[in-house]
Write a structure and sequence with these properties.
Layout lengths: L2 H36 L15 H11 L10 H17 L9 E4 L2 E4 L8 H22 L3 H32 L4 H7 L10 H4 L1 H14 L11 H4 L9 H26 L8 H10 L5 H31 L7 H28 L5
Antiparallel strand pairs: 1-2
Helix pairs in contact: 1-10, 1-12, 2-10, 3-4, 3-10, 4-5, 5-8, 5-13, 8-10, 8-13, 10-12, 11-12
Protein name: NADH-quinone oxidoreductase subunit H
GO cellular component, one term: plasma membrane
Subcellular location: Cell membrane; Membrane
Length: about 350
């Protein structure tokens, strides 16, 4: 890799990092607007036009609130918990391919922070570490409600990671690779949507999206921060920007989960008729092949973000539509329904591959 290419990739990493923070920031605004729409009321409309400056006002509030440390809390771990949750959330977006590649002369820039051949394993390894930030924060708060919330988060993540991992094995059986970029490119045959993995793995996708709600602690699986039972859950004792880090980490995890679902099941940066459009630009408009490919790459990047935003909207729609599960219902769903379904999906996928029905 040349120094120029390395510089371009460093710029891509900074852009991905900035986009993750920006999208998480405005997810707080979108949450309020969608909630207001579904409840037939006026949402944020005071801070800036249409309330667009509301996330900035929230950030100022978080930064200027009083720092509070509970009596008997472990100060070092109390600070480290939200930092770990935020760091792991940001790290998980590094391997997601947000586009194919751009070519400038002899320089090729992939719209992906880093490309590793175990990208899928990397994402789930980092996501698994995120629960330690919740556990550490809940334990270090010296509050029984915070500790109960942390225990719930740990058991919930362990339970649903099993079903999620088993659902991904079926995708791995078809793709033969752990690289998120390779999985995306395999869904680009003729650029048609019926080559996307959601068509081949509908049951696996349903299992994955249910587990994604549990992994991100979103309603109806937000038991770790159940206000009616645990005051505020694992972040009951947090204030100021430490609380902000926990809240931001949740929204970044929603963004990453949406991006992973878009890549694994909905073709990522692929969109219908992309190759026909590229050939038309070359043959009818007289464009160079490189320029036409760059345009397709940009359109693909726009497409993948539209898919991500659609999933984020779905996360928020479910939050303001469905009630919260009881804890026993949550665990029963994970262990007695999702895990057996995921194992059945693996066996079914193996049989279909063996008999040549899917490839």
């Amino acid at each position: 890799m040349t120094l120029e290419t390395l510089g371009w990739q460093g710029l891509v990493i900074l852009v991905v990092f900035g986009l993750s923070l920006l999208i998480a920031t405005y997810c707080t605004y979108a949450e309020r607007v969608i909630a207001a729409f579904l409840q037939d009321r006026v949402g944020p409309d005071r801070a800036g036009p249409f309330g667009l400056a509301q996330p900035l006002a929230d950030a100022v509030k978080m930064f200027t609130k009083e720092e509070f440390f509970p009596a008997g809390a472990n100060r070092a771990l109390f600070i480290f918990g939200p930092c770990l949750a935020m760091i792991t959330a940001l790290m998980s977006s590094a391997v997601i391919p947000f586009g194919n590649f751009l070519q400038f002369g002899s320089t090729v820039v992939h719209l992906q922070g880093i490309e590793i051949n175990v990208g899928m394993l990397y994402v789930f390894g980092i996501v698994s570490l995120g629960v330690y930030g919740i556990m550490i924060g809940g334990w270090a708060s010296n509050n029984k409600f915070s500790l109960l919330g942390a225990i719930r988060a740990a058991s919930q993540n362990i339970s649903y990671e099993l079903a999620m991992g088993l659902a991904l094995i079926a995708v791995l059986m078809m793709s033969g690779t752990l690289s998120l970029r390779e999985i995306t490119l395999q869904q680009s045959v003729a650029g048609e949507w019926h080559f996307w993995n959601v068509v081949k793995q509908p049951l696996g996708f349903i299992i994955f999206i249910v587990c994604a709600f549990a992994e991100t602690n979103r309603t109806p699986f937000d038991l770790p921060e159940c206000e009616t039972e645990l005051v505020g859950g694992y972040h009951t004792e947090y204030s100021s920007m430490k609380l902000g880090l926990y809240l931001f980490a949740e929204y970044i995890n929603v963004f990453v989960a949406s991006a992973v679902m878009s890549v694994l099941y909905f073709g990522g940066f692929n969109f219908p008729f992309q190759y026909e459009l590229r050939d038309w630009l070359v043959s009818s408009r007289g464009m160079e092949l490189v320029t036409a490919q760059n345009i397709i790459t940009i359109l693909g990047a726009v497409g993948v973000f539209l898919k991500i935003f659609a999933f984020i909207f779905f996360f928020m729609w479910v939050r303001w539509t469905l009630p919260r599960f009881r804890y026993d219902q949550l665990m029963r769903l994970g262990w007695t329904i999702l895990i057996p379904l995921a194992i059945f999906n693996i066996l079914l996928t193996g049989g279909l591959i063996t008999f040549g029905v899917i490839k």
